[in-house]
Amino acid sequence: MKKQVITTLAIVLAALPVTAARPAAALEPPAALVKADFGVDRFASPNPGSVNTYWMQAPQGLILVDTLRSPADARKALARIRETGQPVVAILLTHAHPDHVGGAGVFHRAFPQAPIYASKANAKAMREDERGLYALTRSLPGSDFPKKLTYPTKVFRAGATLSIAGLRLRTAEFPGAESDAATAYYEPDSRSLFPGDLIGNRVTPALIEGHSCGWLTQLDRLRTSFPTADTVYPGHGAPAPAPDLIDRQQAYIRHFRALVTPAVRTNSPGGRRVTGAERRAILAAMRRAYPGHPRVASLPTLMEENVKAVAAEIASAEPTKLPPVCR
Questions:
Q1: 87 exposed, middle or buried (CB, 10 Å; 0-12, 13-18, 19+)?
Q2: How far apart are CA 47 and CA 33, in angstroms?
Q3: Residue 11 above 70 pLDDT?
């Protein structure tokens, strides 16, 4: 069972968009470069499973945030960056999932003097890969995930303030949410927040690590850690006002939990097991509530896997011990 869960997780986080059709209601064109406020540009890889890389203007060059899921996507983003005529002087990693680190080697070879920054927790997650995501990603049909990963060259402690290329960036750690380890970067002068996959904008997230309650808790922490943030640059989806995106991410997770909870009560038709009819009803309700939300990966059964993971999480939890945000 554990092997099956890990395999599914690898496919969700690193699947290449080779077979699934683009949703009709997707919000952005494939391989889009989107100009945003505060001197930040974005490259979004094609749907399904679109993922972002950002570069912000610093006094001494460009600072890149995350590196896409594959070298092929990274090369497309690199071509756009070359058009600026400016060098990348630093690379920041928000978390260790394959779809955010797979292209690091492309950027490192293009800009070998640019340090690759990661928190101690994320650097450890990349080197140890306890879930076996990288090896499984390499084994997927059509995958060009690198045989050798490019690792961080600058590791910082949790909560460090970084001085990079003439900018001051505050950091904070948010473990046990969307991913085992996660770092948010905040540029206070522009009030720009880069939270990785802690937040997505109008996308169907991956809840299959089974930490939906932890995710809700960490979103509360994100809000209080950076109360002056104006704009969020999410891991998936378009940049938008920070309070709105945090509220909507929490609302999505709460809604999902509220639909799953009755299905795992002991007096439900399947008891602690979600029946096929219950699963179909949950999926239909989510699609009605969140139409046109493309998946963060090309796995067609992402929503079904989300139901399985959150159902197991809720069924094993002691309701009286849950934090208020999860009740």
A1: middle
A2: 14
A3: no
Return phi, psi of residue 42, to 5°: -135, 140
| Beta strand spans in the chain (E) | 32-35, 40-44, 52-58, 61-65, 88-92, 116-119, 154-156, 161-164, 167-173, 183-187, 192-200, 231-236, 240-241
DSSP string, 111-124: STTS-EEEEHHHHH
124 CB-contact burial (10 Å; exposed 0-12 / middle 13-18 / buried 19+)? middle
Q: Convert the pLDDT of each residue in 116-152 to its tens digit.
A: 999 999 999 999 999 888 998 898 888 899 999 999 9
238: nearest Cα among 103, 44, 49, 69 = 44
Confidence of residue 5 (pLDDT cuts 50, 70, 90): low
Name the token pair of 126.
């990349």
> Among candidates 99, 175, 132, 149, which has minimal Cα distance to 4?
132
The two structure tokens encoding residue 312: 């197991």
Name the CA dihedral angle for 72, 73, 75, 77, rounded to a multiple of 10 degrees: 170
The pLDDT of 176-193, averaged and rounded, is 96
pTM: 0.90
DSSP code per residue over 108-163: HHHSTTS-EEEEHHHHHHHHH-TT-HHHHHHTSTT----SSPPPPSEEE-TT-EEE
Give the per-residue pLDDT at 140.
Answer: 82
Cα dihedral 1, 321, 177, 193 in deg (nearest 10): 170
Model confidence over 283-327: pLDDT tens digits? 999 999 999 999 998 778 999 999 999 999 999 999 999 999 999
For tokens 């979004």, the residue is: 44
Beta bridge partners of 63: 56, 90
